[in-house]
Amino acid sequence: MPSLKKILVYLAALAIAVYCIAPIYSLVIISLMDVRDVVAGNVIPVNANINAYLRILGYDVVGPYGPLRAYGAYEGLLRGLTNIMIVAPIVMVITILATVPASYALGRLRVRGKTFLILALLASRSLPPVSVALPYFFLFSQIGLRTSLLGIIIVHLTITIPIITWVLTGFFSALPRDLERAARIDGCSRSGAFLRVVLPMAAPGIAASAVIAFLFSWNDFFFSWLISQGTPAATYNAQLSGFFNFQNEPAMFAAAVTLQVILAAIVAAVLQKYIVKLRIVDPGAVVIEQ
């Protein structure tokens, strides 16, 4: 017989799993429903179909009560999908290129004022996003970046670079130091030991951080909407706000959101083994002597 403590742990884990999975389950199920299922309030679609997905992609379909036209703004939705498929990889690459050397220096070298720098990075992200919305909006409007993908990329980088730098700083500081010391003794320069020894060891953390940066950019709604809404640069998330005018079409909205979730789920599933290896520890660990 399992103990009461173990039973409570299992029940808590089950409750958390249901809490996390229920919204995704609802999205997927609603996206496969037609009008009859929605009206009946079915938990499982009796008349499952992919008409909602076809309509958001620009195809006319035949429903239970006759022909159904494609989503009127499908061109903007597909353009938004293209935009975010451009923005998110660029944000990911620039974030990793900027944060890896910075995190190595903060995590493994004696840097004057390191504690202050790390606290400044965290403080830059302590402000609620809405508090910087107006400054970004007016500044980018004046310099011509409000209607461009470049503006979205810059805003996303102001968020991903501080967070990923902090995460990778802890990861670099936790890596074994013996191999790097041995490489230095054998004649490697600091940069040589970094490239040949430290980077291969840090590959799991870097890969996981790249995924985090990508998914943040991919999932961001607020800043993407602020910078690009109503322009050709509007991203997929910003275009989703147009569905708020179609409350009688829940299946199409659910299909559009599910389509966005699919890529994130695939990336997370493929790289899960790297994500679980990402150890967030105290960045103030012992450093290697110069």
Structure description:
With 290 residues, the protein is mainly α. The protein folds into 2 domains: 4-68, no CATH class; 74-275, MetI-like (MetI-like fold), CATH 1.10.3720.10. 68% of the residues lie in helices and 2% in strands. It has helices at residues 4-31, 35-40, 51-56, 74-108, 114-124, 133-143, 149-174, 178-185, 190-219, 222-228, 236-240, 250-270, 272-275, and strands at residues 61-63, 66-68. A two-stranded antiparallel ribbon has the order 1-2. Strand 1 and strand 2 form a beta hairpin. Helix 4 (74-108) packs antiparallel against helix 9 and helix 7 crosses helix 9. 30% of the residues are buried.
Give the total of beta strands. Answer: 2
Q: Provide the residue-averaged pLDDT.
A: 81
- What pattern of helices and strands is seen along the backbone? HHHEEHHHHHHHHHH
* CATH fold title of the largest domain: MetI-like fold
Number of helices: 13
CATH superfamily of the largest domain: MetI-like
Characterize this entry briefly.
With 290 residues, the chain is mainly alpha-helical. The chain has helices at residues 4-31, 35-40, 51-56, 74-108, 114-124, 133-143, 149-174, 178-185, 190-219, 222-228, 236-240, 250-270, 272-275; strands spanning 61-63, 66-68.
